[in-house]
Amino acid sequence: MSFLKRPNDVLFRVLVVVASTSLAALCLLVIYSVVMRYVFSDAPDFVEPIALLLVIVIAMFGAALKVREGGHIGLDSLVKKLPTKGQTAAAWIQHLCLITFAVAVFFGCLEMAMTTRGDRIPILGLPEALRYSIPVIASICIAMFSFEHLLALFAKKHK
């Protein structure tokens, strides 16, 4: 199982840095925008499209990070009342559903990225496909983290 754990550890650390940096940048960007708008009456045009990209990064990478930590939305109160085998079955179903979700996001966003690759984000001039590339990366991370959890469940079962 270490063949997947070590790369996932590195990937996790990278996602933490990227998501944290994006959150800090978003905070600074909003403060800058508010000061420019209300103090200097000069609202910068570029703030909104950059903020949207940062929010996408924070949300998608944050979701992947919570999958790795096992802190995603679940029905813990119901699962905790199940017997041990039921809890294990629920965990299997949960991670299989997450992988299915990740595959759907991957292919849906990949198609959108391919469709919009020639378009540009207004004001920034960046490719519109960038908006859809972020969830593609996050979906790969979600699938890898869920697969790691499934391998851990499988290893635990065979001990």
What ranges have pLDDT less than 50 throughout 5 or more consecutive residues? Answer: none
Straight-line distance between termini: 13 Å
Q: What can be said about the biggest beta sheet?
A: none
Oligomer: single chain
Give the total of domains: 1
| Number of distinct beta strands | 0
The radius of gyration computed from the alpha-carbon positions, rounded to a whole number of angstroms, is 19 Å
Name the helix and strand elements from N-terminus to C-terminus, one letter apiece. HHHHH
- Strand % is under 5%
Average pLDDT level: 89
Q: So what's the overall shape?
A: elongated
Structural class of the helices, strands and pairings?
mainly alpha
Number of helices: 5
Proportion of residues in helical segments: over 70%
Account of the 3D structure:
It is found in: Cell inner membrane. InterPro entries: DctQ, TRAP_DctQ. Pfam families: DctQ. The protein has 159 residues and is mainly α. It has one domain (2-157). The chain is built from five helices and no strands. The longest helix has 37 residues, at 2-38.
